[in-house]
Design brief:
Blueprint: E1 14-20, H1 23-32, E2 40-46, E3 64-71, H2 80-99, E4 103-106, E5 110-113, E6 116-127, E7 132-142, H3 159-163, H4 169-190, H5 194-203, E8 211-214, E9 220-227, E10 233-237, E11 242-245, E12 251-254
Bound molecules: biotin.
Residues 22-24, 46, 49-52, 55, 57, 59, 66-68, 120-122, 138-140 line the site of biotin (BTN).
């Protein structure tokens, strides 16, 4: 039996489904109808799981945490990436707490173990420059998946593959919601990433190695220096020039592999 969820807002209302199209889609429809901040949608499987950049997200039955949280932050649109960074930090902490696996954050928000992705985060918002209506935080954690198709083997993994055992999905989702609420509250209170940035940087594997910045024009090698208070990655190019890469602008890879 899993421990009880100890949060004030996130997960006070939880809707559980056997199968949905996408938990983000279900949560979005609920948010449109006025659902409150903190409402969580969890499914055993998704038949139209969504990834970033219009990709699909494999969500096999009973083998992962497929969940979405409705938030209604009163922040500027340009600050939404910070919510995604916070979520990455929360999932990373939760995986470490519940499995003891050495999980790290690949900037901005993939979680990797042994250099391969175990979790993806998809935040989707509704609103305009003057007001955000809601932000859906979608979290997909590969928990007990035993294998991946050949084309994904190099970049994707699961907690079970890494740890050699099954893990309790409920426990991982509870821990994720607890860390998420903690960091989200902190972020909203302070109005910047200031108070969580050190924790994020400690676990950010991108800061530890050289990276390849997959710029639209020409990929280039760079050395990561720091993360700024808006979540941007500061790098130094090989020609010595400094660059701040903003969330969503370009992809960053390790020079020897995915992370
Ligand atoms: C990525 O491409 O890295 C983001 C993947 C996000 C997957 C999660 S699973 C729960 C939620 N519902 C979805 O359809 N997508 C997100």
């Amino acid at each position: 039996m899993s421990k009880k969820l100890e949060t004030q807002v996130f997960g006070k209302e939880i809707y559980r489904y056997e199968e949905v199209t996408s938990t983000n889609e279900v949560a979005r429809n609920m948010a449109k109808e006025g659902a409150s901040e903190g409402l969580v949608v969890i499914a055993d499987s998704q038949n139209k799981g969504r990834g970033r950049l219009g990709r699909s997200w494999q969500s096999p039955k009973g083998q992962g945490v497929w969940m979405s949280v409705i938030t209604r932050p009163q922040i500027q649109v340009q600050d939404i990436p910070a919510i995604t960074l916070i979520t990455g930090l929360a999932v990373c902490k939760a995986i470490r707490q519940t499995t003891s696996l050495p999980a790290y954050i690949k900037w901005p928000n993939d979680i990797v173990v042994d250099g391969k992705k175990v979790c993806g985060i998809l935040t989707q918002m509704s609103g305009d420059a003057s007001k955000i209506n809601y932000v859906i935080i979608g979290i997909g954690i590969n928990v007990n998946i035993e294998s991946f198709p050949e084309e994904l083997e190099e970049v994707a993994t699961s907690l079970k593959i890494e740890g050699g055992q099954n893990y309790d999905r409920e426990e991982i989702s509870i821990s994720t919601l607890e860390f998420l609420e903690l960091y989200y509250k902190e972020y909203i209170k302070v109005g910047s990433l200031e108070n969580v940035l050190d924790k994020y940087k400690d676990l950010c594997i991108t800061l530890k190695n050289q990276v390849l910045v997959l710029d639209d024009k020409k990929p280039y090698k760079a050395t990561p220096l720091d993360i700024d208070k808006r979540g941007g990655l500061i790098v130094v190019r090989e020609d010595g020039g400094k660059e701040t890469i903003k969330f969503g602008e370009v992809s960053v890879r390790g020079i020897y592999g995915y992370a």
